[in-house]
Design the sequence.
């Protein structure tokens, strides 16, 4: 009787131990299953940004090779390159254009525009803007015209590039840029100040001022405007 009782107690303890072990194994299995699943998800997400950045770099490399085949050049903001005895510098790239410089002459150009700057004939093929400075790009088609394109006549039409607060001479007349907005510019000649929309012009008592292009960044000191100043009627 005593031996049978002890055997029954032993069986109950064994069954209880086996049950507890089974529960522990179930919890451990669930932990590793869900834990590893979560880790896999997070690890899969991590490389995505890296892959995307590699794709961007690869696309720019492809664009650079394609541009070279078409006698075009891919520039980043701040890049410069010599063409004969002229050096072209990409000063700034914005969402709608590029500010470039050859010697002491600067130009503001939008995509598709073509100008003569120094002795270089420059056309903007495309502009790619990014908040990341590294990924601001512009493709230019550049030819050396062999001519400076300058005109020394004091009263001949004159393109002037100015920042906010700067001024320049047109003959004996001082032309000042008082303020630059995204689509308009405030110009002052003498005591006369007028706001001119991009692409429009105003007659300042015989001096015609046209807004040829606005390079607006929203950062004080960076924005520029190209004015075409000519002598006109009263």
Sequence:
């Amino acid at each position: 009787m005593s031996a049978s009782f002890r055997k029954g107690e032993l069986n109950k303890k064994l069954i209880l131990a086996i049950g507890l072990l089974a529960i522990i194994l179930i919890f451990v299995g669930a932990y590793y299953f869900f834990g590893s699943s979560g880790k896999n998800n997070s690890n899969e997400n991590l490389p995505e940004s890296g892959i995307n950045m590699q794709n961007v770099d690869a696309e720019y490399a492809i664009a650079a090779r394609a541009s070279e085949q078409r006698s075009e050049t891919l520039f980043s903001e701040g890049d410069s390159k010599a063409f004969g005895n002229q050096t072209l510098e990409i000063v700034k790239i914005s969402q709608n254009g590029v500010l470039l410089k050859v010697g002491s002459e600067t130009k503001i150009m939008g995509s598709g525009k073509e100008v003569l700057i120094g002795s270089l004939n420059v056309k903007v093929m495309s502009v790619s803007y990014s908040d990341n400075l590294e990924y601001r790009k512009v493709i230019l088609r550049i030819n050396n015209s062999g001519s400076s394109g300058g005109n020394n006549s004091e009263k001949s039409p004159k393109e002037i590039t100015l920042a906010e607060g700067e001024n320049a001479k047109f003959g004996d007349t001082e032309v000042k840029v008082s303020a630059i907005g995204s689509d308009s510019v405030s110009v002052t000649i003498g005591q006369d100040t007028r706001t001119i929309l991009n692409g429009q012009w105003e007659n300042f008592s015989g001096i015609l001022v046209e807004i040829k292009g606005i390079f607006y960044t929203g950062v004080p000191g960076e924005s520029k405007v190209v004015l075409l100043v000519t002598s006109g009627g009263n």
